[in-house]
Amino acid sequence: MTSSADLAHRLGIPSGPLFFPVTAYGPDGSVDLDVYRAHIRRGVDTGAAAVFACCGTGEFHALTPEEFEVCVRAAVEETAGRVPVVAGAGYGTALAVRYARLAEAAGADGLLAMPPYLVVAGQEGLLRHYREVAAATALPVIVYQRDNAVFTPETVVELARTEGIIGLKDGLGDLDLMQRTVSAVRTEVPGDFLYFNGLPTAEQTQLAYHAIGVPLYSSAVFCFAPEIALAFHRALVEGDRATADRLLDGFYRPFVELRARGRGYAVALVKAGVRLRGLDVGEVRPPLHEPGEDHVKQLAEIIERGYALLEEAQ
């Protein structure tokens, strides 16, 4: 039996921005693998600590199983073992198991298990769901807490005791609950259980998350402004609060305020940012929609200001 601690060590996510690439589509709406591969290469070459392929930012919800497998395999090939590749898995238990096995067959290093589709389940049902996903493959599993999958600290303790489950990604934002969860797991299941801040534009809240023992975070900004994301992460690691605050005030807060102006902008605005930076990854698929022209213009100004802040600091 392989312990969860051993699996966490095997996954080996280093400190650094976690890259959640968008999925590229061509003019006809089909997956554009050439552009997708270029997007992955850029991210890894720039300094991503890990690639989370076909997850929320990658429009997992909009991909067929066949597209999913092809994209995960492309991400694995483009990273060439330089960083881990974690793939999404979701929907009901049977489909989540199918996606987990597709990801394993495509060469992924781990899974991000997203909430079950549609239903609001009790703690017992959620625990059974994630245990079945974890038992379906040899891949280490990170459970994503958000929306209809919210766990008590006691349930997370049981998840941490489950073979194959190595971490929790929080997209809920309840710091009191997260502090109690971290404390409970630390007390009941000592080891290397991993915690991730998975809120949209996680940098905005990462100072608070880091303080309660959640050191890892997803970075959608890394998709289109990797230098800014790297500078912020470096400031966190080095305790450079002045740089962190300057980027929060001048770049991240304006970006978050713009993101809040449209439903689905946590994905659509990021994809627009990638296009603004010179890589045509296409539009989002329905039911998401594209940001308006004025919002794209504001996004371009925010990105320009972010890079100006980096130059001022040099």
Integer-rounded radius of gyration: 18 Å
For the largest sheet, list the strands in their spatial order: 1-2-3-4-5-6-7-8
Largest sheet: 8 strands, parallel, barrel
Task: Give the mean pLDDT.
Answer: 94
Provide the helix percentage. 40-55%
Question: Structural class, please?
Answer: alpha/beta
Helical segment count: 12
State the end-to-end distance.
51 Å
**Oligomeric composition of the shown chains:** single chain
> What is the β-strand count?
8
β-strand percent reads: 5-15%
- The poorly predicted ranges are none
Shape: globular
SSE topology string: HEHEHEHEHEHEHEHEHHHH
Structural summary, described in words:
With 314 residues, the chain is an alpha/beta fold. Helix content is 51%, strand content 11%. It has twelve helices and eight strands. An eight-stranded parallel beta barrel has the order 1-2-3-4-5-6-7-8, surrounded by seven helices. Helix 3 (65-79) links the parallel strand 2 (50-53) and strand 3 (85-89). The mean pLDDT is 94.
